Amino acid sequence: MDMSLPTSDTAEPVSRTLPEFTKLGTAPLQGLRQDIEDLQETLADIQAIGGDAVSRKIRLMQHELDGFAPAVTFIGQIKSGKTTLVNAMAGHPGLLPADVNPWTSVVTSIHLNVPRAEDAPVASFQFFDAGEWDHLVQNGGRIGELSERTGADKEMERLRAQVAEMYEKTKERLGRKFELLLGQTHHYKHLDDALVQRYVCLGDDFDTASAAERQGQFADITKSADLYLSASNLPIACTLRDTPGMNDTFLMREQITIRSIRDSKICVVVLSAHQALNSVDMGLIRMISNVKSRQVVIFVNRVDELSNPAEQIPEVRDSLLRTLSDHGGPENPTVIFGSALWANAVLADDVDSIPEDSKAALSNYAKCAEIDGLDQMTQDEMIWSLSGVPALHNALGQRITESAGEKALQAMRRRAANIVSGLRASSSIISLKANSTEMMKVSGPEIAMMMERISIEAKTRMDKALDGVFESFGERVDQAHSRFLSRALDALLQHLERQGDNEVWNYSPDGLRMLMRTAYQVMRKGVRKHVTAEFAATADQLAHAYGQIFDVTQENFSIEIPASPDVPPPVTLAQTIVLDVKTSWWKSWWGSRKGYRAFASGFRDLIESETSPMVDELKIDQTNDIRALAQEALEQFLAEQRMVLEDICTKSQISIEDLHGLFGVTSQEEREELFDIIFEELDIDLDDMEEAA
After folding, report:
1. Crossing angle of helices 584-591 and 153-174, rounded to 10°
2. What residues form DSSP beta bridges with 76?
3. Residue 125, beta-bridge partner list
4. Are the beta carbons of 365 and 354 closer than 8 angstroms?
5. Whether the Cβ atoms of residue 363 and residue 369 lie closer than 8 Å to each other
6. Which of 16, 157, 350, 443 sits 20 to 30 Å CA-CA off 461?
7. What distance in Å separates the CA atoms of residue 221 and residue 167, rounded to the nearest whole number?
8. Is 225 helix (H, G, I), strand (E, B) or coil?
9. What angle do CA 299, 86, 410 make, to 5 degrees?
């Protein structure tokens, strides 16, 4: 249920012109902006020489290109300064409250420069639905499941008490409308600090008089927030996602964070300089190890709290890289050091508020920072540069340009090239009509039947090809699962034989994750290979159909195949399972077993119940998503080809004089020259498409 709330009479949308220095580091995005504008001009040229159907399709493509807004997800521990960094990256200091506890942290998406309708909301807040809330209240959420499986009765009682206390406070705060709110979405046409903090900030002891402006009023039941802002320093649209800390109490939002990373193009891992990748951060390493190294940027925050950044930063960097290498993290990651505190201070034009020890750290860091032209900058430019935000903008800009940006541009160029190929075929009708040649060799109903047959066959082939890939993947995953359990049981029995059952045995699930990740990578390659092959086969069928329908040679006619859809990373493998937990739960499970046989059978049951949902997520849910993406791309391809075909059929039925008027260019040579120029402007590079994928 959606609920639009009235706009405040006094609040204004959060929109501001940012200082010029905030454009530092955005050069890669400036280049991407120019490429987008160049393609928009080419699309306008195509629109000018096409008919009504082409014009409508081009307008849709232009709108799609305008809406290109890659998502960047920020993950990290609580108190790493992640939210403060997101505020700085968005150019709005203090926008999101940084001091929230795990109960009230939500996934917040800040949509920067994203086009939207004039009357569209600038803020939307979605609540947990009844099923999600019941899962937390009745079972203690994900950690409640873990505790129950391990038989940790004391842990479960503590969880129930904490959840019950939160539940009662929430009901008291929201009153009778509490249950009605679950599953709703609140929309606003204004945005201010008070509004944001009502949904995503901790609040206590609300009095009746201030009920309408209660801080944290809906925080306990808020699932996600979407805010739409302007950012004058950014040349393109993008989305910044702030996620709950990875050490979020009860793991209540772990799955939401996992989904956020799956839907994003780039992941920024925010660490604190004081505790970069300590033992609690193994969950972070698990998360980013399932994402391509090039799609991960590590930002080490809070260097302002180091006593001697010049000496300590190299030590932190070496320790960080060593830890990542030892635990299977991304290879050769980009690591950026900085301070979100400095960035927000200079953005707010409040440099004087920086504490004295932080100013000393700033001066110390300036001596060792490798930043070109630092000594020639103004004070604001220097502080902004030392904050690390320009370096982060630059790193993200490079990755967006090289991956998501290049893929989006090349995919759009392919679609445009197919439309131009159709126009070229239409153009050739002029010459044939001038020679009194009968154009259409097949009737209209026969053409419709032919296209329907091609469509059905293409979709059937696609499904069959994907069935084979997914079946093979499922077998690999099941085999990996079975082998892991066998090896774990062997290791358990060896431990019992050597150590007895007085010493608790620990076993890492990383081997299982690695096997499943390898199987997923094989599946990903198979999907790209087979989907590309089916697109090519469909393009061949369509080209052959053109030859059957029209007396048109294929010398200057070709059909570009669509790009294979992205296969999202297997981030679900990062989900916390009982073997990751090194607390009294595992000891409780161990202590409740008597005899080697009970250990072996109990362990197998425990791990199967823990890992089966993760396996099913990969085998069923994720493969279904991939299939839907592939079929959607195929359907779009077929729809555009139908449009091209309809355009040619229309032109074959009208007079030569009208055809001349349609194109606005009466010379066949001039038309061919124009088509050649457009093809050159599109500059389709199939190799680049595969690299970007």
Report:
1. 130
2. 270
3. 186, 225
4. no
5. no
6. 443
7. 10
8. strand
9. 80
**pLDDT for 12:** 37
C-alpha distance across the termini of the chain, in Å: 37
> Lowest mean pLDDT: which of 153-157, 335-339, 362-366, 435-439?
435-439
Q: How far apart are CA 97 and CA 89, in angstroms?
A: 15
What number does CATH give the domain 265-387? 3.40.50
Alpha helices in 67-123 (DSSP H): 82-90
- Sheet of strand 334-337: strand arrangement: 2-4, 185-188, 123-127, 222-229, 107-112, 238-242, 71-76, 266-272, 296-301, 334-337
Statement: residue 659 has pLDDT above 70: no
DSSP assigned state of 435: T
Query: Can you tell me the mean pLDDT for 542-550?
Result: 78
Regarding beta strands 266-272 and 296-301, do their DSSP bridges make them parallel or antiparallel, or are they unpaired? parallel
| Amino acid (1-letter code) at residue 64 | E
Q: Please, are residues 71 and 239 in contact by the beta-carbon 8 Å criterion?
A: yes
The sign one gets for the Cα dihedral 267, 270, 276, 282 is negative
- In one letter, which amino acid is 408? A
pLDDT band at 208 (very low <50, low <70, confident <90, very high): very low
Two tokens, residue 408: 């989006």
- For residue 584, what pLDDT is reported? 60
Beta carbons within 8 Å of 501's beta carbon, 6+ residues apart: 590, 593, 596, 599
Residues ≥6 apart with Cβ < 8 Å to 64: 412
Instruction: Please state, as a whole number, how many other Cβ atoms lie within 10 Å of the Cβ of residue 557.
Output: 16
CB-side neighbour CA atoms (13 Å) of 400: 32
Identify the helix (H) or strand (E) that includes residue 300. Answer: strand 296-301
CATH 3.40.50 domain extents, the chain:
265-387
> CA-CA distance, 78 to 242, in Å (whole number)?
12
Torsion angles phi and psi, residue 426, rounded to 5: -60, -40
Residues 6 or more apart in contact with residue 52 via CB below 8 angstroms: none
| % of the chain beyond a pLDDT of 90 | 32
CA-based max dimension of the chain: 96
- pLDDT: is 326 or 125 the higher one? 125
Is residue 199 within 8 Å of residue 106, measured between CB atoms?
A: yes
**What distance in Å separates the CA atoms of residue 569 and residue 265, rounded to the nearest whole number?**
10
